[in-house]
């Protein structure tokens, strides 16, 4: 992704009108021109533009730049890097005892949105990061170092995120705009009742405000039906420890609990991700959903929630008919739980939201996804 290119250093032919001239002065009046000749400037959050005042006749000039009446700089130039949407007034004053020159530029700052083009795809275009938690499929073809290709540009293959906290971060070749209704679809592989097997994953989103193509802006959780539930734990942290063998993977959390991800006979290998940067331990932090694993009659089930989670056989977004889970960008919440209005998103993070080892037949609860797409595109 490239930054929006803007016309800078375009030398203006127009000299700003001099005011306050002092008659009889032997000091020449400065002749000042500017690198930006218009009276208005349209930028996006995160753009960087340099504006300069040029003294064409080399006299000494006192420069002053004010932004919304506050002194911004006394240099001959300034760098404008808007960090918030709004309308700003940039006022320049420069001169000597003979004459003072002024210029006013109204700066309109909008949000950075990558447009849909003729070649855009509605599906995932790139996976930025993949770090699964330990699980039965980890280090196999649906959860190894190359498995992220499974969800790019299609929805036919699976990617496993492992146990609680394991995640994937992906993006599209355009911004997904926040429109009325659902904006984002993510497909998983839950099973329907009465043998329901949901493995709910939590979704977070981010908007590329700084325009650098990296997922380093603030993240927001899309609040599903359990977000306000007393059984949902916020700021939950778990640490898994590599057994460095085909053995149960131990873990500890910040609630004082501990346990293991159990090895089963169907996946006889180390469940710790062998491609993780740290081969001793890995930690994950997020929201923890309540456990729904248990038996109904003679059948083991893991029930889903009403709305707002991945790999979730949910009634709230009609998974039975749609075969995917849907999400509204308007559900975004910040770290304090405040509702955040985002005009668009650029990055999506999905992580396993439950911590349950399941059993030695079915394995641990681990979110799987088959891809994602922009519901605003046909």
Key descriptive features of the protein:
6-stranded mixed β-sheet, 378 residues, mainly beta, 26 strands, 37% strand, elongated
Q: Can you characterise this structure?
A:
The chain has 378 residues and is mostly beta strands. 1% of the residues lie in helices and 37% in strands. It contains 1 helix and 26 strands. Strands 1, 3, 5, 6, 8 and 9 form a 6-stranded mixed β-sheet that branches. A hairpin with a 4-residue loop joins β17 and β18 (258-261). The longest helix is centred in the C-terminal third of the chain and has 4 residues, at 319-322. It is elongated, with a radius of gyration of 28 Å. The two termini are 23 Å apart. Residues 1-23 have low confidence and may be disordered.
How would the global form be characterised? elongated
Overall mean pLDDT: 91
Topology order in helix (H) and strand (E) letters: EEEEEEEEEEEEEEEEEEEEEHEEEEE
Unreliable segments of 5+ consecutive residues: 1-23
Number of strands: 26
Strand content: 35-45%
Q: Describe the largest sheet.
A: 6 strands, mixed
Secondary structure category: mainly beta
Figure out the total of helices: 1
Radius of gyration based on Cα positions: 28 Å
Helix content: under 10%
| Gap from first CA to last CA | 23 Å
């Amino acid at each position: 992704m490239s930054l929006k290119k803007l016309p800078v250093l375009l030398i203006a032919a127009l000299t700003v009108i001099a005011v306050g001239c002092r008659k009889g002065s032997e000091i020449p009046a400065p002749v000042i021109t500017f690198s930006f000749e218009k009276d208005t400037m349209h930028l996006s959050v995160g753009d960087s533009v340099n504006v300069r005042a040029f003294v064409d006749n080399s006299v000494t000039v006192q420069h002053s730049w004010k932004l919304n009446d506050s002194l911004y700089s006394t240099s001959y130039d300034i760098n404008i890097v808007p960090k918030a949407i709004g309308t700003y007034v940039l006022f320049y004053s420069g001169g000597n005892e003979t004459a003072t020159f002024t210029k006013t530029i109204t700066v309109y700052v909008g949000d950075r949105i990558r447009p849909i083009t003729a070649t855009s795809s509605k599906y995932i275009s790139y996976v930025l990061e993949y770090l699964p938690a330990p699980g039965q499929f980890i280090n196999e073809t649906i959860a190894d170092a190359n498995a992220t290709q499974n969800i790019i540009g299609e929805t036919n293959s699976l990617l496993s995120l492992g146990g609680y906290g394991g995640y994937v971060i992906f993006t599209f070749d355009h911004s997904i705009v926040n429109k009325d209704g659902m904006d984002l679809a993510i497909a998983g592989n839950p099973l329907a009742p009465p043998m329901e097997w949901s493995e709910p994953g939590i979704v977070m989103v981010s908007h590329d405000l700084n325009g650098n193509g990296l997922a380093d802006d603030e993240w927001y959780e899309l609040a599903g039906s359990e977000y306000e539930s007393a059984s949902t734990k916020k700021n939950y942290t778990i640490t898994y420890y590599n057994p460095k063998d085909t053995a149960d993977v131990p873990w500890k959390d910040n609630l004082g609990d501990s346990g293991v991800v159990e090895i089963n006979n169907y996946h006889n290998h180390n469940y710790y991700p062998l491609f993780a940067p740290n081969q001793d331990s890995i930690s994950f932090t997020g929201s923890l959903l309540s456990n729904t694993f248990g038996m109904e009659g003679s059948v083991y089930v893991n029930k889903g929630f009403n709305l707002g989670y991945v790999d979730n056989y949910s009634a709230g977004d009609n998974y039975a008919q749609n075969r995917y889970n849907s999400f509204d960008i308007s559900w975004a919440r910040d770290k304090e739980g405040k509702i955040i209005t985002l005009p668009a998103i650029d990055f999506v993070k999905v992580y396993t939201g439950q911590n349950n080892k399941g059993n030695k037949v079915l394995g641990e609860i681990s979110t799987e996804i088959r891809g994602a797409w922009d519901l605003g595109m046909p």
